[in-house]
Amino acid sequence: MLMSPTDGSGEEGVCEASHSDSIFSRLEELRFRLEQQMGFEKFIEAYNKIKAIHEDEDENMALGSSLVFSTLGTEHQHLYPNILHLVMADGAYQEDNDE
């Protein structure tokens, strides 16, 4: 049963906590699947390159993307959007926790 925030039960945080837990769970599941498909080493290498590109505003995006695609190889290039999603979600999570 979902409680409304004004019912005085103190349950309003439960829905919010389960929502963030489900987001975290989905992200961890995505990370796990990517590691399984690519292998841990290749996943980490691609993840770190994508993260570095997004953190460095001066980086040439086209050059950075070509480096990532060369790391992924043709076999895993289709996974780029999933890795990018994970990098961006991790970045948003860290920004929220830095405040």
Task: Explain what you see.
- Keywords: ATP-binding, Kinase, Nucleotide-binding, Serine/threonine-protein kinase, Transferase.
- Its EC number is 2.7.11.1.
- InterPro entries: NEK_Ser/Thr_kinase_NIMA.
- The chain is flat and about 40 Å long.
- The chain has helices at residues 12-38, 40-55, 61-76, 80-98.
- The relative contact order is 0.11.
- With 99 residues, it is mainly alpha-helical.
- The protein has 4 helices and no strands.
- The protein has one domain.
- α1 (12-38) runs antiparallel to α4 (80-98), α2 (40-55) packs antiparallel against α3 and α2 (40-55) packs across α4 (80-98).
- The longest helix is centred in the N-terminal third of the chain and has 27 residues, at 12-38.
- 79% of the residues lie in helices and 0% in strands.
Mean pLDDT: 79
Assembly type of the chains comes to: single chain
Kindly state the percentage of residues in helix.
over 70%
The span between the termini is: 33 Å
The computed structural class is mainly alpha
Molecular shape: flat
Treating each run of at least 4 consecutive H or I residues as one helix, how many helices?
Answer: 4
Biggest β-sheet: count, sense, barrel?
Answer: none
Order of helices and strands: HHHH
Our estimate of the beta-strand percent is under 5%
Give the number of DSSP strands.
Answer: 0
- Please compute the radius of gyration using only Cα atoms: 18 Å
What's the number of domains?
1
> Stretches where pLDDT falls below 50 for ≥5 residues?
1-7
Catalytic activity: L-threonyl-[protein] + ATP = O-phospho-L-threonyl-[protein] + ADP + H(+); L-seryl-[protein] + ATP = O-phospho-L-seryl-[protein] + ADP + H(+)
GO molecular function, one term: ATP binding
Organism: Champsocephalus gunnari (Mackerel icefish)
Protein name: non-specific serine/threonine protein kinase
